[in-house]
Specification:
It is a single chain. The protein is α+β, with helices and mostly antiparallel strands. The chain has one domain: L-fuculose-1-phosphate Aldolase (3-Layer(aba) Sandwich). It contains 7 helices and 8 strands. It has an 8-stranded mixed beta sheet with strand order 3-2-1-4-8-7-6-5, with helices on both faces. The longest helix has 24 residues. It is globular, with a radius of gyration of 17 Å. The termini are far apart.
């Protein structure tokens, strides 16, 4: 496996953990390489990945690598087959998960997330872990958005690189933390964005 790919996994996995975007063994990340997928091994800790924690398997069919792959391999495959993504990050951003429990979309109030993400849809499945139905729901949503929330579970972000998908993930959580702190302060929000009426219509 290309050393640069290994280094990307190690760095982004560590950054996700250090940014409190996953618990010790939570989340998973992958990249697409043509008709192959490289994905975190099931049970591996994102903050302490080693080269042997990366599993390579087929994009459309199983081979010997699939036995060790993340239990959410099906979701990553479906996203790759349905979008132009070359990288997928599934994280558990805590404030964003809390927001996902009470709304169908997250609309940022801060400048950066408003510009980068616009809004983040919240989708839901009764069995929110590794099912075909969940994979299709997420892939459909990611056809129009960079990142989506699965209610009560976590975020799924796509990009051309792991760094790009990490950017969307950290931006989402920062936006939710800012929204929560603004709510705790409890003062009247002064709209500062151009085309602000568009945000109110979402």
């Amino acid at each position: 496996m290309d050393e640069r790919i290994i280094q990307q996994f190690l760095e982004v996995g560590r950054d996700l953990f250090e940014a409190d975007l996953v618990s010790s063994h939570g989340g998973n990340i992958s990249v697409r390489l043509g008709d192959r997928v490289v994905i975190k091994r099931r049970g591996a800790m994102l903050g302490r990945l080693k080269p042997h924690d990366l599993v390579e398997t087929g994009l459309a069919k199983n081979d010997s690598g699939v036995a060790l792959a993340s239990t959410e391999l099906l979701i990553h495959r479906t996203i790759y087959l349905s979008t132009p993504a070359l990288a997928v990050i599934h994280a558990h951003p805590r404030t964003a998960i809390a927001y996902s429990l009470s709304r169908d979309e997250i609309v940022p109030i801060d400048n950066e997330a408003s510009y980068l993400l616009k809004k983040i849809p919240v989708v839901s499945e009764e069995v929110p872990s590794g099912t075909k139905e969940m994979a299709e729901t997420l892939a459909n949503a990611l056809g129009a958005y960079k990142i989506v929330m699965l209610r009560g579970h976590g975020s799924f972000a796509i990009g051309q690189t792991l760094d790009e998908a990490f950017h969307w993930t950290s931006t989402l959580e920062e936006a939710c933390e800012i929204a929560l702190k603004a709510k705790l302060i409890g003062e009247t929000f002064i709209e500062y964005r151009g085309m602000s009426e568009g945000y109110k219509k979402w």
